[in-house]
Amino acid sequence: MFGDIMGMMGKIKETQEKVEATKKRLDTVLIDEKSSDGLLEVTLTANRKIKSITVSDDLLQDKEMLEDYLVTILNKAIEKATNVNDAELGAVAKEGMPNIPGMDMFK
């Protein structure tokens, strides 16, 4: 029994290391989102860190429109990044979790 616990603890530590490595890798995965008319484009990492925002000069003339575009496009990009992040980290966590009866929360 003690060996099983030690093996389980080792597996959990290995999974934690894989999760951390995946988080680091997700800093290099870029998500691009742009408005349908191409006036605004944002790029962020799968860890939801903004890398760039490109704004057309046309949008700079209308503050309210620019604000609306930013909210809409940033929310879309954050949603995409969150989906990628959740899928990647969920896969690593599920793969590395020991099989504990009654603890099938990752299935």
TrEMBL record:
Keyword DNA-binding in record: yes
Database matches in InterPro entries: YbaB-like_sf, YbaB/EbfC
Record's subcellular location: Cytoplasm, Nucleoid
Keyword Cytoplasm: yes
A matching Pfam family: YbaB_DNA_bd
Main location per the UniProt record: cytoplasm
Keywords of the record: Cytoplasm, DNA-binding
Subunit structure, interactors included: Homodimer.
Cited HAMAP family: DNA_YbaB_EbfC (MF_00274)
Function: Binds to DNA and alters its conformation. May be involved in regulation of gene expression, nucleoid organization and DNA protection.
Entry similarity comment: Belongs to the YbaB/EbfC family.
Name of the featured protein: Nucleoid-associated protein ACFFVF_09905
Organism: Flavobacterium jumunjinense
